[in-house]
Amino acid sequence: xxxxxxxxxxxxxxxxxxxxxxxxxxxxLQVTANRLPQSQSDVxxxxxxxxxxxxxRSQAGSIIDxxxxxxxxxxxxxxxLGTLSSLFMRGTESDHSLVLVDGVRINSAxxxxxxxxxxxxxxxxxxxxxxxxxxAAYGADAIGGVIQVFTRRGAxxxxxxxxxxxxxxxxxxxxxxxIATGDDDTRLNASLFHRDGxxxxxxxxxxxxxxxxxERAGAQxxxxxxxxxxxxxSVNALRQNFEGEYDNCGFPASQDCVTxxxxxxxxxxLAVQLQSDWQMLVTAxxxxxxxxxxxxxxxxxxxxxxxxxxxxxxxxxxDNGVDVLGIDYRQDSVDFNNRAGASYxxxxxxxxxxxxxxxxxxxxxxxxxxxxxxxxxxxxxxxTGSLGYAYQLTPYQRLGASIAxxxxxxxxxxxxxxxxxxxxxxxxxxxxxxxxxxYERGGWQGRVTVFDNRIDDLIxxxxxxxxxxxxxxxxxxxxxxxxxxxxxGLTLRAxxxxxxxxxxxxxxxxxxxxxxxxxxxxxxxxxDWSFGATLRAAGDRRDTDFVTYGNTTVAGxxxxxxxxxxxxxxxxxxSAKVExxxxxxxxxxxxxxxxxxxxxxxVTLRF
Length: 607
Prior knowledge:
This is Vitamin B12 transporter. There is one protein chain. With 607 residues, this protein is mainly beta. The chain contains four helices and 33 strands. It has a 22-stranded antiparallel beta barrel. It has a five-stranded mixed β-sheet with strand order 3-8-9-6-7.
């Protein structure tokens, strides 16, 4: 397991992961959809924002629990906390969604997926989810959508801080500390966090009854400074070390498997107001992920994924909109070794992207246009775009429609990896149509979005050899319902997604994706007490049989979580929760267990 001294190392580092474009001090701003600050109500795309208050109120134990079942989002996980997770946004593949931390990509340079399970909630200030293709803004990978995580921010003025400790079932322990200080010009914040536990048995095939435990520890640091009225600079850093036990690795399959390593991102941003209507942003970022896999105590492989990126963006404010011009550069590389001495034929790639966006408002009418050109050193160039229109039907209702294209560049492991590869792979491409109706008045808000996403040249794998090739086509049609109501101390939030993620070659549903899933959160505050409950539910899913590798179906499920908190004094809060309150036995992936009823209690000190 990890040494707790790893908690301290980052407190000595002044660096950071590239901060997202725009000042986040205003809570109603959303910046992810179009890489510029917009009021949440003005964004055409289907979005969800989860702020720090939402995170603390939910008492979620991981980002997987926090996101599971929200509009358009399904997550599968192979066992307990820290084991491999797969994100399916709007029914697309697990590597079709772009994940950012403060503007820096954290998708792996090898597999293309992002290790969501490694992101610590203790270091997160805010999460923005944008559903639907965003390639015209970000380039490759954003076919299903974008999730951006913003780390903790310093207070505008004064000093704030907190300590939290909790303990739960299966000998689970959680400790964290956070402090922020600053004035109108300078803001500084830092956080430390640690969590460990015995977990539970990952697979049904393991009859030993042993538990697969985990430990993770890390730190986060952020600093911003306004040099003059027109110049501001900011840096952020996030690091998390992890170690987790799991089952079913290698051949023949072993139940004594361990993965350990770290995830870290660094970078910064320089914002310069060149003129009253002209702002320039310069960003830079670096990302690393290391994973060491061990079986029966012996190292099987060590893989490191690295990324460097820089960007330059100019924003021009108009009387009725904004224009954006930008260019970014990204370089990915991989270091790999295993017991067999295998290696990558090519272990790096570069990408240059140029993009332009325009937003205009004409009375009740709004239009958005974006175009981007990318040149990838391994597979060539790709042009993507989007066009959107919205109409303000009444002061409280809005209608809109959009069309967008997107693509997914072939992963390094498929092109030049140590196993079955195909250097001739083409990019996976997508075309998405969607329409929406949105309503917001008083304490009510709601949105209905209908979408149709066609994906061509999906990468599949040949039997026996597992060599990748372009063949599959998919069509994903669906409707998302999301909304909420707030009055007095009662807050209700709900989402429901119904979709048909279909393989157009076979007519079958895509693996591990439900046709219908949803989530309901209800919270009530009464004096110094708060009470809450969450229902997460999903229908059945097609899957691959854990034993025979044939087709199977995993049953649907419904899980209820309960929580409460008591504000004893202005500084002290006691909390308790029961996850899976009715001890539901269910699976997200065939052959892999999920957690039984889990009880946790904690204390938080704020100053």
